[in-house]
Amino acid sequence: MIFFRNDYGEGCVDSIMQLLIKSNEESHPGYGCDEYSKRAAEIIQSKLPDTPSDIHFIVSGTLANLTMIRHCLRPYEVVLAADTAHIVVHEAGAIEAIGHKVFTIPNSNGKITPSSLERAYLRIIEDTTIFQVPRLVYISNSTELGTVYTRNELEKLSEICKKFDMYLMMDGARLGPALMSGVDYSLNDIARWCDIFDIGGTKNGGLFGEAIVITNPDLKPYFRYVQKQSGAIMAKGWLIALQFIGLFENDDFYKCAKHANELAKQIQDSAIELGYPMYMRSTTNQIFIVLNQIQYKYLKERIDFEIWGTWGNDTVIRLCTSWHTSQEEVDYLKVYMKEAMDQYVLSVQTEEEKEVSSEEKE
Amino acid sequence: MIFFRNDYGEGCVDSIMQLLIKSNEESHPGYGCDEYSKRAAEIIQSKLPDTPSDIHFIVSGTLANLTMIRHCLRPYEVVLAADTAHIVVHEAGAIEAIGHKVFTIPNSNGKITPSSLERAYLRIIEDTTIFQVPRLVYISNSTELGTVYTRNELEKLSEICKKFDMYLMMDGARLGPALMSGVDYSLNDIARWCDIFDIGGTKNGGLFGEAIVITNPDLKPYFRYVQKQSGAIMAKGWLIALQFIGLFENDDFYKCAKHANELAKQIQDSAIELGYPMYMRSTTNQIFIVLNQIQYKYLKERIDFEIWGTWGNDTVIRLCTSWHTSQEEVDYLKVYMKEAMDQYVLSVQTEEEKEVSSEEKE
Amino acid sequence: MIFFRNDYGEGCVDSIMQLLIKSNEESHPGYGCDEYSKRAAEIIQSKLPDTPSDIHFIVSGTLANLTMIRHCLRPYEVVLAADTAHIVVHEAGAIEAIGHKVFTIPNSNGKITPSSLERAYLRIIEDTTIFQVPRLVYISNSTELGTVYTRNELEKLSEICKKFDMYLMMDGARLGPALMSGVDYSLNDIARWCDIFDIGGTKNGGLFGEAIVITNPDLKPYFRYVQKQSGAIMAKGWLIALQFIGLFENDDFYKCAKHANELAKQIQDSAIELGYPMYMRSTTNQIFIVLNQIQYKYLKERIDFEIWGTWGNDTVIRLCTSWHTSQEEVDYLKVYMKEAMDQYVLSVQTEEEKEVSSEEKE
Amino acid sequence: MIFFRNDYGEGCVDSIMQLLIKSNEESHPGYGCDEYSKRAAEIIQSKLPDTPSDIHFIVSGTLANLTMIRHCLRPYEVVLAADTAHIVVHEAGAIEAIGHKVFTIPNSNGKITPSSLERAYLRIIEDTTIFQVPRLVYISNSTELGTVYTRNELEKLSEICKKFDMYLMMDGARLGPALMSGVDYSLNDIARWCDIFDIGGTKNGGLFGEAIVITNPDLKPYFRYVQKQSGAIMAKGWLIALQFIGLFENDDFYKCAKHANELAKQIQDSAIELGYPMYMRSTTNQIFIVLNQIQYKYLKERIDFEIWGTWGNDTVIRLCTSWHTSQEEVDYLKVYMKEAMDQYVLSVQTEEEKEVSSEEKE
């Protein structure tokens, strides 16, 4: 079985492991008040020269999301998010559990379009019986469907948020692949557009960890209090910081994402060439392919992938690459995809021949 | 500065680091559904032969506490805890943030006595205007003050809980030191007495991690759902499991605690011998000493410790040992404690001489 | 302006006012522990001979809904409701504020169909990444769109809930009109089908009040505790009880609903006859009519109604009757509706004539 | 049985009942957007000429408290309250259920003293491990023990709150009796001292209702949103407004309280004269008397009172007067108290005689 199940199936890149080993027996103050946490924040801040930010570290994604949202909102304020958003479909009601409603907006390839955001905002505000204030717009970049926001989209979303006094929050669990997908913007731009966002380490070369970046001055005070209350401060806080030092000191963050994207592109190109229907065209490290039952049966015994859903009688699967995926694994995958397609074509031919021969008999 | 600030100031024991390195590039399913998580649970279960348990892993302590308590309680049910309990004084209102009130019981050396528990239970139940049901008794072992529950106390607390239909939950963030403090009970006994408890890795040789042990069959279903909702499932879940494999496969869990306790005992014995008043007599790895201002001033420049509080004009400090503390560090500490005491004695004598001489002058 | 805005625009029927006056200076124990509360519960219980129930009283609807749902659910359990449900669109996130997610099901004339319920249940349960348990199905009867569940639908919904271990909860804010809409079931049937439901007094002749009926024995304990915690026990609890004594002692509950339904039917019949498009065909006291701008402009100056939404360029309005609506008011309304239609027809003719004449000129 | 159990045992004063009857069949918009609600707010505002306020109406006390506190606080902010406070002991964890911790301050006759408030604030702020911000100080006036804050105390509490950026909130469930207890301040002063407070109708002549007064401009926006979300807006909102029109239009609010206080004073004076120990000296309508078992047994069969607690072997009872209590009832009570005391004295004498006679026998 070759592993294409997800991008969090292996440990960490070597730079991080070396830092872990090297620092293992040094003594540190707890709860993120150590020198590594300071240094990690400085390195990340250096990538955001235009925007003085507060930077915190949280061990995992759902915990990061719920802490950020809890911090930003008053009880009557709600989140706007695409109906495919991670907080909507994969976080077990964590946002509702902290008391907030998520208004969903029909996604467009996993994204919220500026016009749909504006419409959703107005619909809530203009209905006097709703008594809820849209205050935070949650977007994932790259999205849960592997797509990436364009510069233009982000500028417009940011404008709308400013105009309507809403916070723009970016879930950057897969921000690395987004930034390396060929877009014309950088972390520095994101810091200008978003009020709060996180940079994901877990799915891009780290053992774990999200770096929370707060750019909006109104949101800076008391974040650590909410973090503590949410159980989101680690005793040995420097361990998360080490992930980000490892990822950003030598650009491993970008190299990992670039590597994963390139291999993913090979897979998508190959699938298209072989004639597989794509559920979604991706420019990042998640590839969504539609398999019929013959193809599915053939591939699931050779490749470890995630089932994303169904499409009529077919199955949508997700193939995920990561820093750890090798060219060799991708080559094997291509071969298997070809074989699966061949099997299917053969079966169709056989079926047709049977029909022809049975027709001839008549 | 010698480090006696806490027991979570360094990384992990070597057995865990080796596992991390060895497993780093293996591929695993996410969210704790991997083979290491299974194996870690099996090893821990093997320590609890009398009690078939469900075992889960959570990365840190407050997150573990809030997840366990959220899982156990209905909205109108409350926690009983000592007024010195971690959830009362050091978790930033995390329990209230998930909707539950904590009724505090005056501590006795950091512990809840059986009779005070019974009294607290009856007081709540008999007052018909309170409309709250005491359902979960939270105890820490060892306690926040370094003390340890006796077998007899735990048996009685467990009996009272069963009698009054309450869950007994043990916060085992420092369970290792408790078990190695000379008590006549083991993990297997704790599993029989408690409905749910956790075994702390963070403060006893691991990088992080609490192993949650659920023994009460009523509490087993759906724990993972609450865990997910609380942001308490790590993507690379095997990383927590590795901590517990490392700690329990070769008894490092016990060795670390034994080592820390022995060094702490030396410190406490030395302090007593030198004439320092003790804030609390400890049998584990946290030592609480009362320093006057001369001693405090002398020591704080040489030793990295935590200030616990004040006692009149004096300062209560906590000295903490861990798996990582060395005999050499303890020896230095003893020397410094002696010197601090000498300084004080000298200053008293000087003061007395001054008084004598000024009296003579008169 | 004639009042058709809602069914909670006036005080109460005379039977209740008489009880209020008569009992005003009697002395009672507080918090619903009085004789009137007992008697009101007995009268309601007498309508549910097949199902021994616990009956409580809560002053208003959102408070009743949030208390009932908080009482029924564990943190990871969610509500299934139509996307038109009151708790989804008109309660300001009250359910999320107590920590629970509401999964919405596309409505069919304001209702959940048995098949859509089954589908929604399976979709949640079969997706292993959701980590949420559907446990409570919320239906309104009559619905927010004036429609009513049939006996067959309720039997099937009840069956599905039992099969999948879910609670069926009916929001009976407008249960009176539902029961008097010609259905072949009674309160006694509803008690057999639902695990918990409420009977609305506010919108059917009372000053305020919902009678909460708990039929499922598992849900009976501790309801008052959740009620107290939610601020949902009134000091002078007998005041709510008086509403239900007044409504049920002489069948005013049924008479009020019958009266409102009959007048509503006249309005709907008249509107259809006049050629107005109906947004929804109702069998109860809420009528939804589509008005073009000429009709809208004409009517809004004569009738006090609620704007329900827009339909293309047209406006959907709701006309609501109640125990208090008079035949005279309905007669006026009919006249105005006729005039509004006449105006519109006239304007179309004028427009056509203009066109004809301008064509002739050419 | 004569009723001295509480001050919410009967309906309402006649002025309110007349308003209810008169307005019963008028038609109103819902949810407090009616003319009566506007007028009630205006009348109350006229009592607070120095402080432009937002005024809302909520049906009952716990609901008012939880709505106000939810509105004021961010997740990490906590309430400071006396350990005897209603929200601490009589509201079933309602404040914790909305996510906030209540730090208790040892009461001084039911009150928070300025110095104890300052100490409590500093204790929380200076401990860097607490991670909680004291933001709202909750006081009841009159207190749960019948005592009343002095002008000086309120001025100082208000100063401290301003100095430390905390909100001062007054629970005025029994504000009427406080204001008529002989204090040298008025509603207008309270509005200057408090950021938010409520004026209780339920316990002072109304059927129900708390008038919420928000004086701090920062707290004015969005209160109705939190109110709606908490289920704290009544459909027929004018009903609460009528209570306050009735109470304030002809000063019934003050007359009721004055009447209750005067009768209570008679009771307390009589009890003291008869030699009963007082649990607390009250200047309002709640009187706390200590009864031995003979007195208790005698009185409990003749008077309907509340048991407040125990004091050694004795029982502390609360006798409550209200707008509805009559001089005749108080006269009866005095007679019974005298008889109960006589019984006790007689029993002591008999006991002594027995002892004397048995001694003589020896």
UniProtKB/TrEMBL annotation, chains A, B, C, D:
Keyword line: Pyridoxal phosphate
Chain ranges of the Aromatic amino acid beta-eliminating lyase/threonine aldolase domain: 54-291
SUPFAM superfamilies: PLP-dependent transferases (SSF53383)
Domain of life: Bacteria
A molecular-function term among this protein's GO annotations: lyase activity
InterPro entries: ArAA_b-elim_lyase/Thr_aldolase, PyrdxlP-dep_Trfase, PyrdxlP-dep_Trfase_major, PyrdxlP-dep_Trfase_small
Gene Ontology biological process terms in this record: amino acid metabolic process
Cofactors required: pyridoxal 5'-phosphate
Alphabetized PANTHER family for the sequence: L-THREONINE ALDOLASE-RELATED, LOW SPECIFICITY L-THREONINE ALDOLASE
Family membership noted in the UniProt record: Belongs to the threonine aldolase family.
Protein name from the UniProt record: Aromatic amino acid beta-eliminating lyase/threonine aldolase domain-containing protein
Organism the protein comes from: Ileibacterium valens
